[in-house]
Amino acid sequence: MPACITVSRKGPAAILTFDRPDALNAWHAAMRAEIVDALAALDADPAVRVVIVTGAGARAFGAGQDRDEPPPADDAIEGWVADWGRFFGAFRSLSKPLVAALNGVAAGSAFQVAMLCDFRVGHAGVRMGQPEIRAGIASSSGPWIIASALGLTIATDLCLTGRMIEADECRRLGLFSREAEPGEVMAEALRLADDLARLSPVALALTRQRLKRFDEAGFAETLALWPAMLRAVRDRQT
Fold this sequence. Notes:
By secondary structure, this protein is α/β, with parallel strands linked by helices.
C-alpha cells in the first residue's frame, strides 16, 4: 500500500493527497513513484472524471524535492532524470482534468506540479515560488514550466531570484483559477470537479492533449539538458 499518499473518492472526483505533512509534503523517489502509479490507476478508472491533487495539513501543498534524500551518484544521474521525466509526464499525459487544491506553500517542483495542473484553487495564505537557486541548484524543469505557464519575463524573475510570491501576486499573475477561504479550498475544488464532470470526457481528453502538445518540445529539451546542468554545478563545487 502507498505510504506517502492517500487516494479517496468524492462523487466524480478522485482526491490524491501528498501525505507527508511533517515534511511539508516534500517528495522523495519512492513517493514520486507512488504518485505516478496512482495517477495511472486513476486515469484507467472510467468512474473517475476529474483528479484533484492536494497536500495533507494546512501548511503546504508541497515543498518540492526532499532535501534529506541524497542526490544521485554521477553514474545514476540519467536514471534519476528519467524518473523525474516519468513523474512530470504522469501529470502531463493524464486524460482527465487536473485540479490543484492549494493549501499553503507550493515550492520548487511542487510549484511546478501545481502549474502542470489545469486549474488551481488558492486562498489568501498561499505562497508559491522557485527557490532552488538560493540553495545553489540550477533548475532545468523550473524555467520550462514557468515560462510555458507565465511567460519568460516571470520565469526569469522567479528562477533567478528564488523569491516566493504571496497570494496577491499569484492572483495578479493568473495563477489562481478559483479562490476560496482557507477552509473551503477543497469544497471549491469539488464544485469545479462537478462542473467539469458534466462535460464530454472525450472532448476534455482530446483538448487537454492538444494543450499539452504546445510545450512538448520544451519538455523534451528540459530532460535532455538536466544531466549536464547537474554535473556542471557539481564540478564547480568540488
